[in-house]
């Protein structure tokens, strides 16, 4: 193939944070395929992940509205062309009205929203009228409408910059716990806004994805160990497993047998093993669920109690309230995620406008 261009190398570097020469080598190895080059670098431990935030072109706002009785919450992502339009009074009013319409009409998706009657016209026509007034293209990109089913509470949170929003629903059995759980759900929403879990639990991650991420994660840890060794610092332990999906009953049984053998070899009295083993097994699980800790809400360590995962916090809260609690729904929106940035220089922009 033709020589790898400097622009392509630059783009790969912006996506991965890898070194310039590593990027060029990766592109040569995969014949210039950008996505394959990203995977190549990850497998070599040279890139933690594609930096999606750097490729986001969309501006606008995330809007969240929670019902007073915590029975329902709605969230919308409304995109604009520029960031300053978010301060425009017309845009702010449009966001508020759109959010209220979604809540009042129990709308589940953007297609249904476009068909709703607003001021004698469809929402789609109403939006076009607002675009003409505001003078900038505006799109309701996506929305979520979450209701408590049976006994449950729903709460939401939108970060102060309006770029991240979260909704979480928690089911319970004892009615007296509803008010306490509303605040608890909001705290979990704040955690998710900051820590960016992509999934609720490991059950939602398929085996093929885990296998792929495992290769990248181990390569990343091994690469970091090279630097830690150079600095004389403790090395990362390279895990045998990376998700609860891999920790089958057989794996956990073998881990317990190994720990018992280790306690015996250390000369620990057998009558205290049962007091030691639970903590060691918990440590084994923590060491071998790194993907869950990075990518799942229940697998992450809670920012307000970093000794416990969200799953453990939920279990502790259940005992505290004498109830059985379950997170039944989790939705997180980050403004513009997944939208590719269009790169152009000033001269190109001018030429595009005068053509």
What does this structure look like?
With 355 residues, the chain is an alpha+beta fold. The protein folds into three domains: 6-51, Helicase, Ruva Protein, domain 3 (Orthogonal Bundle), CATH 1.10.8; 59-189, 2-Layer Sandwich (Tetrahydropterin Synthase, Chain A); 202-295, no CATH class. It contains 13 helices and ten strands. Helix 1 (6-16) packs across helix 2 (20-29). The radius of gyration is 25 Å and the shape is flat. Mean pLDDT is 89; it is low at 49-57 and 342-355. This is Elongation factor Ts.
Mean pLDDT: 89
Oligomerization category of the chains in this entry:
single chain
Beta content comes to 15-25%
What's the domain count? 3
The ordered string of helix (H) and strand (E) elements is HHHEEHHEEHEEEHHHHHEEHEH
- Across the major sheet, the strand order is 1-2-5
Overall 3D geometry?
flat
Structural class comes to alpha+beta
Q: What's this entry about, in short?
A:
It holds the Pfam family EF_TS. The chain is of the alpha+beta class and 355 residues long. The protein has 13 helices and 10 strands.
């Amino acid at each position: 193939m033709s020589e790898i261009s400097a622009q392509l190398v630059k783009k790969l570097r912006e996506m991965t944070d890898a070194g310039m020469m590593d990027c060029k080598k990766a592109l040569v190895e995969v014949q210039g395929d950008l996505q394959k080059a990203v995977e190549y670098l990850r497998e070599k431990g040279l890139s933690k992940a594609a930096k999606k935030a750097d490729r986001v072109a969309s501006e606008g706002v995330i809007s969240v509205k929670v019902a007073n009785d915590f029975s329902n919450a709605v969230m919308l992502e409304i995109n604009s062309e520029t960031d300053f339009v978010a301060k425009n009074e017309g845009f702010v009013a449009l966001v508020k009205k759109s959010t209220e319409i979604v809540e009042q009409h129990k709308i589940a998706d953007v297609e249904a929203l476009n068909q709703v009657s607003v001021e004698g016209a469809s929402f789609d026509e109403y939006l076009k009228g607002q675009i003409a007034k505001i003078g900038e293209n505006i799109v309701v990109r996506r929305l979520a409408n979450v209701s408590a089913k049976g006994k449950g509470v729903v709460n939401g949170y939108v970060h102060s910059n309006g770029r991240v929003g979260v909704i979480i629903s928690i089911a319970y059995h004892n009615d007296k716990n509803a008010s306490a759980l509303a605040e608890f759900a909001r705290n979990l929403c704040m955690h998710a806004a900051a820590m960016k879990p992509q999934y609720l639990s490991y059950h939602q991650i398929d085996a093929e994805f885990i296998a792929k991420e495992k290769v990248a994660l181990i390569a990343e840890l091994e690469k970091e160990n090279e630097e830690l060794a150079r600095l004389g610092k403790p090395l990362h332990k390279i895990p045998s497993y990376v998700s609860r999906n891999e920790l089958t009953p057989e794996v956990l049984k073998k881990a317990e047998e190994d720990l018992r053998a280790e306690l015996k070899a250390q000369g620990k009295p057998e009558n205290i093993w049962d007091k030691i083993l639970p903590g060691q097994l918990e440590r084994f699980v923590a060491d071998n669920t790194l993907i869950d800790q990075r990518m799942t809400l229940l697998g992450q360590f809670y920012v307000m109690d970093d000794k416990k995962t969200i799953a453990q916090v939920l279990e502790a809260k259940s005992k505290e309230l004498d109830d059985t609690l379950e997170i039944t729904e989790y939705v997180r929106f980050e403004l513009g995620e997944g939208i590719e940035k269009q790169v152009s220089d000033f001269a190109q922009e001018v030429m595009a406008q005068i053509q």
